[in-house]
Design the sequence.
């Protein structure tokens, strides 16, 4: 009974934090107030100061995470609404997703090697631009560390969302297709959530890019490891 | 009240697709995640009108409007890796950050370039078939 009460209070705490930070972000849309960043930081501060471990928190938190399943499925809805556009640009989107996945894996692999980071750690970072469930699978297949892969995915997701407005401005990426591919291909589902702030088209392109990247990533992952000789 | 019930019912439909996708993944032991399979399945069902869009519209809109919330419990997991704050951890973070910027810049810029080329080609073809237009 006490466990149930604890789980519910963790769920409520997460909900309250989310709604507080997102209403704050609506009023002051600064990158640092992005709900995913400010919410995470606030949550960690609260858990650490209350002496609650992550495993304990997840007894409640897992119920929120479980809603990711139907939410990923729900991405079919914007796809369906944009189906005519997608049909027209299918090859461009597949090409873009391929470029994104290849760049993501090669760049982090080469940088990691240049910085002399442990090769098992680098391998865990290769799938960092893929959506979490895929990244875990790919890391396992490549004999990396699954939890480190999740950390890489998280940092990539949050940072990509923060840096995207500056990159788009500086490089003049102002089309929905360019933004959608960049966000979905780099920052997976978090990037897709950010793309929703631009327009529905960018949102749909981002979600299809994320899905295509998931497929491409699980195929070319082993190839990259072989190329980099890790 | 009706609206709340409708959303819950429609979210359950989405759950069913998620479940089917995960089952397919396990059955064929695929590396593609089950939820992505579920999404593609729902997309096909919507296109062929097997599932009318009205049946999932409200539920999908609701979930997608609070998408960021569902990531928070997972991202809080970073707290289990305090070693990220060591020198080695910082090097790793730098590699991730730089790679993220490169990926976003390269993928966004090249795709935009090729999409414009495609558009231009189409526009040119349209010009050739119709009367000539000066630009």
Sequence:
């Amino acid at each position: 009974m006490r466990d149930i009460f604890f789980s519910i209070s963790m769920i409520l705490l997460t909900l309250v934090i989310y709604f507080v930070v997102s209403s704050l972000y609506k009023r002051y849309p600064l990158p640092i107030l992005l709900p995913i960043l400010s919410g995470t930081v606030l949550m960690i501060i609260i858990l650490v100061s209350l002496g609650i471990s992550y495993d304990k928190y997840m007894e409640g938190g897992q119920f929120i995470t479980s809603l990711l399943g139907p939410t990923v499925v729900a991405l079919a809805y914007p796809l369906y609404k944009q189906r005519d556009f997608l049909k027209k640009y299918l090859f461009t989107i597949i090409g873009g997703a391929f470029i994104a996945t290849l760049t993501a894996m090669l760049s982090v692999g080469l940088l990691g090697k240049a910085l002399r980071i442990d090769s098992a750690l680098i391998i865990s970072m290769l799938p960092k631009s893929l959506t979490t469930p895929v990244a875990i699978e790919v890391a396992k297949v490549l004999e990396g560390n699954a939890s480190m892969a999740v950390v890489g995915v998280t940092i990539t997701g949050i940072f990509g969302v923060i840096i995207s407005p500056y990159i788009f401005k500086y490089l003049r990426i102002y089309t929905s297709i360019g933004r959608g591919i960049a966000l979905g291909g780099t920052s997976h589902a978090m990037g897709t959530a950010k793309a929703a702030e631009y327009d529905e088209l960018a949102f749909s392109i981002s979600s299809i890019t994320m899905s295509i990247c998931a497929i491409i990533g699980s195929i070319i992952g082993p190839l990259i490891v072989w190329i980099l000789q890790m | 009240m009706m609206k709340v019930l409708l959303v819950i019912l429609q979210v359950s439909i989405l759950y069913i697709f998620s479940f089917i996708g995960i089952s397919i993944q396990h059955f064929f032991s695929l590396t593609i995640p089950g939820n992505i399979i579920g999404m593609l399945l729902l997309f096909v069902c919507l296109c062929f009108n097997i599932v009318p869009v009205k049946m999932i519209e409200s539920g999908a809109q609701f979930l997608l409007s609070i998408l960021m919330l569902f990531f928070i419990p997972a991202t809080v997991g970073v707290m289990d890796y305090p070693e990220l704050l060591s020198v080695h951890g910082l090097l790793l973070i730098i590699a991730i950050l730089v790679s993220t910027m490169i990926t976003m810049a390269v993928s966004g810029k090249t795709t935009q370039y090729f999409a414009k080329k495609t558009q231009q080609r189409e526009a040119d073809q349209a010009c050739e078939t119709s009367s000539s237009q000066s630009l």
In short: Chain A is about 85% helix and 0% strand. Chain A touches chain B through 100 residues (CB under 8 Å). The CA atoms of residues 11 and 105 of chain A lie 35 Å apart. The radius of gyration of chain A is 18 Å.
